[in-house]
Design a protein that fits this description.
The chain has 668 residues and is an alpha/beta fold. The chain is built from 32 helices and 13 strands.
Length: 668
């Protein structure tokens, strides 16, 4: 970890933060985190807004989007719509930027938050998909891209407006990649097997010419071959639209009046922007997990481990309440609550597993026999572990010499007065000691969580339990509880999941009920929003739909030679949510610049009968729409709309939704 100094104010702030940066990194590692090293930079207000506009980096390619984002961020600050606390990027080493005007309490909160982000970057498989076996140096990659695109804009042989227009077109498709595969694998796509021409099989068969002409005439054979070829393409759609356009796209040359090959600079720019899309994909795919992970460990370090000083705690509490209390779908709040739920359920299963091994205890009589108040008392951390202060070190020293909860070397230094344990009590404890000190089931907000365990869960735990007569008493069983089980499980999940699988696996009925989640929808009959359901299945489905494919429509390539005219056919994998047709048309206009020939989009639209809407309004219900398959075609001048045949309409219905699969399948 390194502090970077510039102006006088920045140097002063950096000096104040040297110790918090050093100690936060040490605490993070004590808690079992394994982050990338972090370089911290102190910046002013304007520099912070610029970094936010650039996505956390100091250099990006020239484009109007950065100025637009900068202006939006500046207005948010100006009108109190959001304060920038920090920004950190996924790199090795990671780079975090601290705004010099923030309070020391805010800076400490940011630092602890950043250390957890750096751990997530370093250990989550989805971030690893972009890196592969190579070293991650994203800042250098983005700077190279910026310099290369700047050279193209400065080249007198290339019209600057052409470069900007081309970038605009590519950016319309920046999320149309195959985020579940590495950038190299996605570029190749799945191999498409061209169906065998029936003529070859007929040639090998002993059929008379007369029968062949009557039954298998050439026109029928041509139609069959075309239909089978089209079906083969539709059965293996390409998710990486950018890669397909790079491989087969052209551009329309107005002077020549036809589509021509892309210029080398266009292919180069497309390659660079596609690579950046894959780099940023992991951040978009893990927003809830990543922010929740950082919020969880920040809260533990700042609050429970008192990293925030006594005079800083109120400021920090205000900081966290603003972050977790922001309206709408809040990834910090949802993610933190899910991580806490995973910790609690894992610890509950660990305790229940031990209690079910007590003589006389079974899943049937568990709630009748177990004294939950007694269990709560037995689960309390050892006072020597829980109450570490400079005047209580003798209690730690009195523990057995091989006690794994104590960092004996640091304890000796603390007894000699070389460690400030009043400021940093965690220094004399190990991971095991900290896990006991922060065991989630003994926290006041979680009292009763163990008692709420369902009989079905107890039965499942007991089903394969052979050694169920291990302990003679509850006290013996609790003494064997692994207090680090929850943290261990959290780190396992952090490695393999993304937001979709995270929500799919851990958003349960119990979680939705305890945290009061619900769904709402816009009603066409009343023209207003209303609560539509409190059922966990509905909450889960709606959340999954919002996070599948970055929360954006899934568009795939069906055919690069549609109707045998060189036209591009894209398809919207319809999951019940209709496209914004006006936006879709805008994208097709941009896509035409990358394809050079007519482009088509197959989708499904919902149509409502005005009479049905009026009847539904009077009966306080939603009208039932008619779903119709539609193909939108743009030829460079005008749009045309056609009906889709039933076969293609059925093909584009998203029956195989992303969230039906698991990480091991995606990563295979």
């Amino acid at each position: 970890m390194t502090m970077r100094r510039f102006r006088h104010t920045a140097r002063r702030v950096a000096g104040e933060l040297e110790e918090p940066v050093r100690e936060a990194g040490r605490l993070a590692r004590k808690l079992g985190l394994d982050p990338y090293p972090v370089n911290y930079w102190v910046v002013d207000y304007a520099e912070m807004n610029q970094l936010i506009a650039y996505g956390g980096f100091q250099r990006r390619y020239p484009h109007w989007r950065w100025g637009m984002t900068y202006d939006r961020q500046q207005k948010q600050d100006q009108f109190g719509m959001g304060k920038a606390f920090e920004i950190v990027n996924n790199d090795n080493p990671s780079h975090a930027f601290l705004q010099e005007s923030n309070s020391l309490a805010d800076q400490k909160a940011v630092i602890t938050h950043v250390e957890a982000h750096a751990d997530f970057f370093a250990n989550n498989d989805w971030f690893g998909m972009f890196v592969g076996e190579s070293d991650l140096d994203a800042a250098a990659m983005l700077e190279r891209h910026a310099e290369a695109i700047q050279r193209y804009t400065d080249d007198p042989e290339i019209d600057r407006e052409d470069v900007e227009r081309f970038i605009d077109a590519v950016l319309c498709l920046e999320d149309n990649i195959d985020q579940h595969r590495t950038i190299g694998d996605a570029a190749t796509g799945r191999e498409r097997i061209q169906p065998e021409d029936l003529r070859k099989r007929l040639d090998a068969m002993n059929i008379s010419e007369n029968v062949r002409r009557q039954v298998f005439d050439d026109e029928w054979l041509d139609q069959l071959a075309e239909a089978e070829a089209a079906a083969a393409r539709l059965d293996a759609p390409r998710r990486d639209v950018l890669a397909f356009v790079r491989e087969h796209g052209m551009y329309y040359d107005e002077e020549e009046g036809k589509a021509v090959e892309m210029e080398p600079w266009q292919k180069d720019v497309l390659d660079m922007l596609r690579k950046e899309s894959y780099y940023f994909a992991a951040q978009k795919m893990t927003k809830v997990m990543n922010e929740g992970w950082a919020a969880y460990w920040e809260s533990l370090m700042m609050g429970e481990e008192r990293f925030a000083g006594t005079d800083e705690f109120v400021t920090y509490a205000d900081h966290q309440s603003r972050v977790l209390g922001s309206p709408g779908l809040n990834p910090y709040k949802l993610g933190k609550e899910l991580w806490e739920y995973i910790e609690n359920t894992t610890n509950r299963a660990e305790v229940a597993d031990k209690l079910l091994r007590v003589n006389g205890v079974s899943w049937r009589n568990f709630h009748d026999i177990i004294d939950f108040e007694e269990v709560q008392e037995l689960l309390q951390p050892d006072p020597a572990i829980d109450g570490v202060r400079s005047d209580t070190l003798d209690r730690l020293a009195a523990l057995d010499d091989d006690d794994p909860r104590v960092d004996w070397e640091t304890l000796d230094a603390a007894l000699a007065g070389d460690v400030d344990v009043d400021a940093y009590p965690w220094k004399v404890l190990t991971y095991e000691g900290l896990a006991e000190r922060h065991f989630s089931l003994v926290k006041p907000q979680n009292r009763g969580f163990l008692k709420r365990i369902r009989r079905s869960e107890l039965e499942q735990l007991s089903r394969y339990m052979f050694d169920d007569q291990v302990y003679d008493s509850v006290a013996e069983a609790i003494a064997d509880v692994d207090r680090s089980a929850g943290w261990d499980r959290m780190r396992e999940i952090r490695e393999s999941h993304n937001d979709v699988t995270f929500l799919d696996a851990f958003l349960t009925h119990e979680f939705v009920k305890d945290n009061h989640y619900f769904t709402y929808e816009f009603t066409r009959s009343t023209g207003e929003f209303r609560v539509s359901s409190t059922q966990y299945e509905d909450v889960k489905k709606k959340l999954l739909l919002q996070f599948t494919n970055f929360g954006k429509p899934t568009i795939v390539v069906f055919d690069g030679n549609y109707a045998n005219r060189g036209e591009l056919l894209l398809a919207h994998q319809f999951n019940g949510i209709m496209l914004d047709i006006a936006q879709a048309r805008g994208v097709l206009e941009r896509l035409y610049d990358l394809w050079g020939r007519p482009v088509n989009l197959a989708t499904i639209v919902k149509e409502y009968d005005e009479h049905d809407v009026e009847v539904a309004r009077r009966r306080n219900r939603e009208p039932t729409p008619v779903e119709r398959g539609t193909r939108i075609r743009y030829d460079g001048d005008e749009f045309e709309t056609f009906d889709l045949d039933d076969e293609i309409t059925d093909r584009i219905r998203a029956t195989d939704i992303d969230y039906d699969t698991k990480p091991d399948e995606w990563l295979s």
